[in-house]
Amino acid sequence: MCIVLQGLYHLVVRLSTYIGNETTRYGLENLVLEKIQAAFISDGRVKLVSEDKAKIKLKGVITGYERTVFSYTGTDEVEQYRLTVKVELTLLQDTVTLWQHTLTKWVNYPPDKDEDEALEQLCTELGNDVVHGVIEGW
Asked: What domain range includes position 98?
């Protein structure tokens, strides 16, 4: 993932078509990129532009994806699963690192809910968190 920012009060953002994915979850990078891009657009404080018009870059790589049992019922049946995604983020101005941040996001969901639905919800929240962290600070 590469997001490029410019300006102090009006951010200009470019999201590349690539996001790093070090997990075994196929296509996760596409969903995360889509949700981050949608969150920047929805926020409204950014404008998408080409990379050559921006000075600040946000780079990221998905380093973790895990589904675990979060809780059981009294009869030892799964009551909730926990889905966790971890993303390593770096904000750069030219070659200078402005900050680095590890974002770990999770969502719990019942066994009758599809894992892909839970992942969609998690990535939407992750995108919103990335926008908040970039614009307002961690």
From this structure: 2-136
> What is the count of structural domains for the chain?
1
Residues in the chain predicted with pLDDT less than 70, given as ranges, are 1-18, 47-51, 53-54, 138
Read off the CATH number of the domain in which 16 is found. Answer: 3.40.50.10610
Cα–Cα distance measured from residue 52 to residue 31, given in angstroms and rounded to the nearest whole number: 25
pTM, to two decimals: 0.85
Cβ atoms of residues 23 and 65 within 8 Å? yes
Using CA atoms, how far residue 80 sits from 40, 86, 117, in Å, is 31, 20, 14
Q: Which amino acid is at 52?
A: D
- Rounded to an integer, what distance in angstroms lies between the CA atom of residue 74 and that of residue 8? 54
Token pair of 77 as six digits? 């049946």
